[in-house]
Known about the structure:
Elements: H1 3-10, E1 32-36, E2 39-42, E3 47-50, H2 65-75, H3 86-98, E4 104-108, H4 111-126, E5 130-134, H5 151-155, H6 166-169, E6 172-175, H7 180-189, E7 194-199, H8 215-226, E8 229-233, H9 245-250, E9 256-259, E10 270-274, H10 276-279, H11 298-311, H12 316-337, E11 342-347, E12 350-357, H13 363-366, H14 371-383, E13 386-387, E14 396-397, H15 404-422
Parallel strand pairs: 3-13, 5-6, 5-7, 7-8, 8-9
Antiparallel strand pairs: 1-2, 2-3, 4-10, 9-10, 11-12, 12-14
Helix pairs in contact: 2-11, 3-11, 7-8, 12-15, 14-15
This protein binds 5-azanyl-4-oxidanylidene-pentanoic acid.
Amino acid sequence: MSLFEEAKKYIPGGVNSPVRAFGSVGGEPVFISKGKGSKIYDVKGKEYIDYVCSWGPLIVGHSNERIVSRLKEVIENGTSFGAPTELEIELAKLVVEYVPSIEMVRMVNSGTEAVMSAIRLARAYTDRKKIVKFEGCYHGHSDSLLVKAGSGALTFNQPSSPGVPDEFAKLTLIADYNDIESVKKLFKENKDEIAAVIIEPVAGNMGVVLPKGNFLKELESVCKNEGTLLIFDEIITGFRLAKGGAQEYFGIDPDITTLGKIIGGGLPVGAYGGKKEIMEMISPVGPVYQAGTLSGNPLAMAAGIETLKILGEEGFYDKLREKSNKLWEGFRENCNKLGLKFAFNCIESMGSLFFKEGVVESFADAVESDTKLYATFFHKMLAKGINLAPSQFEAMFVSSSHSEEDIDKTIKIHYEVLKEMFGN
Ligand SMILES: NCC(=O)CCC(=O)O
């Protein structure tokens, strides 16, 4: 019996998160035994260059020495206290220093929790109930956000999940990413009722889709005029596009920011932060309740602190950009050499190749991609030792641990695979 067969006996679908099950690409998921730097190894010892990076957190690669050694130090003193520690202050300070709009931050355990809490806070702050999200954006799996969601929900054709009561779902209004008119229309129809607009500033869960022109600026100003809070879901883009995330990159001032992934350096951490006036509505200062037994866990804080310190070093993002651009250029050249006109979207160290000709600038464009071709591409890459996300509707990530050699090898294999699929 394979490990997957065995897992399926005890765990629904054999996995603890649906996207891992290879549902949209077929076949059995690879079981991983270890990771080091840019590489992961399956239980049979096969090596892969990894561009999933645990779905984004590992911007400095697997099993980074500084993180591991700090974790060893911290674990000697205990694993959880449910009481304040200095480590929490250290990570909070770094977040406030790095992320322009954050004056205060609350740590939780996952991105889902961060978003769920941010929405509650926005509703309490504005005394309004409705929220706006964009079709194909994914903000974790809390009830209000599982309406026309991206990522695994889209991959598995469950964008609006059963189990979410209609009464909740109808408070979530849906706009089109990169279409400010669709947002304005919702505001017109729901005057003074919208608490918050939540957005992935760069969409990463319908594949990578970049904000066009002034879209984010316009969104910021619509929200300000309407007395609605703008929530930037920077769970993917935070500390990824720049030290201060997408808000620094695009010069936007959101009211609340949600963080996850990189902030935990590979351990479970989420966070939400914003202006002091808003954040001080949270219990025990204010009336908005939110809590967590393991929130601010010392190990998770330590991994986050070490990661953020590395990101703060001179030239970190310049080097990562250079490396990423080399890979993206390689992919583009490969497509050109083979006369392929597939859309390729990238920004800094995140990118997606769409099996769709032309451009992908909206959710409607993204879902026109040929997911069967993606599945073939994915399996051929995997067989040759390149690990990509097992879905068209995800991003790939470059880490600081990817070497020139990794990048060259990946470009070479990418060419071979596309040639096998499309060459004459
Ligand atoms: N881009 C989607 C995620 O990062 C979530 C991964 C998961 O659902 O396990």
